[in-house]
Amino acid sequence: NAGVTQTPKFRILKIGQSMTLQCTQDMNHNYMYWYRQDPGMGLKLIYYSVGAGITDKGEVPNGYNVSRSTTEDFPLRLELAAPSQTSVYFCASSAQTGTHFGPGTRLTVT
Amino acid sequence: QKEVEQDPGPLSVPEGAIVSLNCTYSNSAFQYFMWYRQYSRKGPELLMYTYSSGNKEDGRFTAQVDKSSKYISLFIRDSQPSDSATYLCAMSAPGTNFGNEKLTFGTGTRLTIIP
């Protein structure tokens, strides 16, 4: 099992550009999440999904959108990127063994 | 006041020492308590989780929860240089169960074990 995979690893965006962060898991987990990690701030939940076709907002959803058309994939969309969205983004999935995180995407918005 | 408070460190200890990492929390409705280890530029990995007050041991690691004081700890015995990482405490939101958890994280403590 590859676990949770994320692409790209790094990205630099200009203010106002859009992009999609990809996330795939091969563990057949129903629950998936997007967190962002800022220096000294811990991880904060952006969006989560309890299964295909069902998503809901977390603590910091503004500026982001998600979709969940399959169990495996949970992409995160950034529209009109802003410097405040400079962060490390982690996708995760969970089941009885707990929450498993991907390796992260480092995003810089300049 | 943050829901979860964690001393960011950094914390440096000599190899072989016992390490104590701590978090306090304010929401008594938190149900599950986890410790994650995060190596530099990697994703967090789950080390241990506990539900009730008391101790849980796994090899060199012991997780302790005191719900009456809203205080959790992670102890590392016989610390090794490979334990050098950031340790994050996390708690599951009220109404969620283990395996279905929206997590609230501490800020993480950066630990260095000196050979």
- Helix fraction of chain B, binned, reads under 10%
Query: How far apart, in Å, are the first and last alpha carbons of chain B?
Result: 37 Å
Rg of chain A over CA atoms, rounded to whole Å, is 13 Å
- Give the largest chain-chain interface (CB within 8 Å): A-B, 26 and 24 residues
Q: Shape of chain A from CA axes? A: globular
What is the CATH superfamily of chain A?
Immunoglobulins
Summarize this entry quickly.
In chain A, 0% of the residues lie in helices and 55% in strands. With 110 residues, chain A is an all-beta fold. In chain A, the strands form two sheets. In chain A, strands 2, 4, 5, 6, 9, 10 and 11 form a seven-stranded mixed sheet that branches.
Describe the structure.
The complex is a heterodimer of chains A (110) and B (115). Chain A is an all-beta fold. Helices cover 0% and strands 55% of the residues of chain A. Chain A has a single domain (4-96), classed as Sandwich (Immunoglobulin-like), CATH 2.60.40. Chain A has strands at 4-7, 10-13, 19-25, 31-38, 42-51, 54-57, 64-66, 76-78, 87-95, 98-101, 105-109. The N and C termini of chain B lie far apart (37 Å). Chain B has strands at 4-6, 11-14, 19-25, 33-38, 45-50, 54-58, 61-66, 71-76, 85-92, 103-105, 109-114. In chain B, the strands form two sheets. In chain B, strands 2, 4, 5, 9, 10 and 11 form a six-stranded mixed sheet that branches. Chain B is mainly beta and 115 residues long. The mean pLDDT of chain B is 93. The chains are: A mainly beta (110), B mainly beta (115). The A-B interface holds A 4, 31, 33, 35, 40-45, 48, 50, 58, 90, 92, 94-104 and B 4, 6, 8, 34, 36, 41-46, 49, 88, 90, 98-103, 105-108.
